[in-house]
Design goal:
The complex is a heterodimer of chains A (about 190) and B (about 190).
Chain A (H helix, E strand, L loop, with lengths): L3 E4 L19 E11 L4 E12 L2 E12 L5 E6 L6 E6 L9 E7 L1 E5 L4 E14 L2 E14 L4 E5 L9 E4 L26
Antiparallel strand pairs in A: 1-11, 2-3, 3-4, 4-5, 4-6, 5-8, 6-7, 7-9, 8-9, 9-10, 10-11, 10-12
Chain B lengths: L1 H28 L14 E11 L5 E13 L4 E5 L2 E4 L7 E4 L2 E5 L4 E12 L8 E11 L4 E4 L3 E5 L2 E5 L1 E5 L4 E12 L5
Antiparallel strand pairs in B: 1-2, 2-3, 2-4, 3-6, 4-5, 5-7, 6-7, 7-8, 8-9, 8-10, 9-12, 10-11, 11-13, 12-13
The chains are: A mainly beta (about 190), B mainly beta (about 190).
């Protein structure tokens, strides 16, 4: 059964756009090797590839990067076999003392700089953390986040259980009690990766 | 008696001609008396040289400028000091290559550039200029291939790339960077 769930939640529910300051940060690519085809306008980097822009960080085994004629970039990140590509980005602070992070995983991650949209494809996971505590969590086949419209689109897909699972924490004014200490930049791929 | 005398004169003349021609042929075959070149020393040295390569229609293709040029006859190699190669192909963006020194081997098929190697390709048709900097680069001019096995720094537009080695094909316009690739791209202008 193909299950399609469209969540167009208002700002109160899944609020806060990605860190706005990230837009003005340079994009940094790191990998073991890269092939840059100027005629086809396709750049492929591979081998423990990472893409960093401000607080945003995407990791995977292979990244296909393109630059549109208007200068905006996009990336398709694929994971190694039996691993998932990862995404992590800090959100603009809404409440003082609360540091929010978005984390996402999938066999493939599609990122578009112009629309600020991220798409997690196959074994998709998405979660929102407040001071290191998971508050919202969504799993599905395909999860798309459109920053411009501030909407999430989750597709259960035809593979796997075909079901979408979303856990959204009640919106309270209280701040999670967890210590903010565990928040530090990832220096290596999560467990289960090669 | 007169007949015998004239016969004798003819025989002597013939003998003289024979001996002289034999001596000449011996002399011609003898190796010329010149000192053999010492290995590793150039046959000629030129300062501040400009060499131009033309195509079959007489149009200049490449111009090579160098502060010093040494030619080695023993292996046909050329050593260059501060060389600068400039392409003059009318339908292609200009390519310039320069280094502190270079050695041209295999009758010009391969050029090894060393020290402050700078490869530049001018901007053209919406593509920003390309600059490659390294300490050692091998160029195969006929194939327009440039490769380096030491760290390189590549700049194009607002993108900067660093890597441990690279290979660039100017015909297919494919750049391969291997080992410790790090690229930095400025934020998109909006």
């Amino acid at each position: 059964m193909r299950m399609l769930l469209l969540i167009a939640l208002a700002a109160c529910c899944l609020p806060a756009l990605a860190e706005r300051a990230d837009k003005d940060q340079p994009t940094i690519i790191e990998a073991d090797r890269g092939v840059f085809d100027e005629l086809k306008q396709v750049n492929v980097v591979s081998g423990r590839a990472t893409l960093t822009r401000g607080t945003m960080r995407i990791t995977g085994e292979r990244m296909e990067l393109r630059t549109a004629p208007d200068g905006y970039r996009s990336a398709v990140v694929t994971a190694a076999a039996d691993a998932l590509a990862t995404f992590r980005q800090r959100r603009d602070a809404v409440r003082p003392g609360v540091e929010e992070y978005i984390e996402g995983m999938g066999e493939r991650i599609e990122w578009d700089e112009k629309t600020e949209s991220v798409r997690f494809v196959n074994k998709a996971q998405w979660r929102r953390l407040e001071n290191g505590v998971v508050r919202d969590e969504i799993t599905g086949q395909v999860i798309s986040y459109d920053a411009a419209a501030s909407t999430y689109r989750i597709d259960g897909g035809e593979q796997g259980s075909g079901r979408v699972r979303a856990v959204i924490a009640p919106r309270t004014a209280e701040t999670p009690k967890a210590a903010p200490a565990p928040l530090r930049p990832a220096t290596e791929l999560p467990a289960g990766k090669k | 008696m007169r007949d015998r005398l004239s016969m004798l004169i003819a025989a002597v003349l013939l003998a003289v001609v024979t001996v002289t021609s034999y001596w000449y042929s011996r002399e011609m075959r003898r190796p010329t008396a010149r000192t053999p070149p010492t290995p590793g020393t150039p046959d000629f040295i030129v300062d501040h040289v400009v060499l131009t390569q033309f195509d079959e229609r007489g149009h200049a293709r490449y111009k090579l400028l160098a502060e010093g040029l040494s030619y080695f006859n023993e292996n046909d190699d050329i050593d260059l000091t501060k060389p600068r190669l400039v392409s003059l192909l009318p339908d292609q963006p200009q390519v310039q290559a320069s280094s502190a020194r270079a050695r041209v081997t295999n009758a010009g098929a391969q050029v090894l550039m060393q020290g402050d190697v700078l490869l530049q390709r001018a901007a053209a048709a919406g593509r920003p200029a390309l600059t490659i900097r390294t300490e050692r680069m091998t160029a195969i001019p006929d194939e327009e291939r440039f490769s380096s096995d030491v760290p390189v720094l590549i700049e194009q537009g607002d993108t900067r790339l660093a890597g441990a080695a690279m290979d660039y094909d100017n015909l297919t316009r494919v750049l391969t960077v291997s080992g410790g690739l790090r690229g930095e791209m400025a934020p998109a202008r909006r």
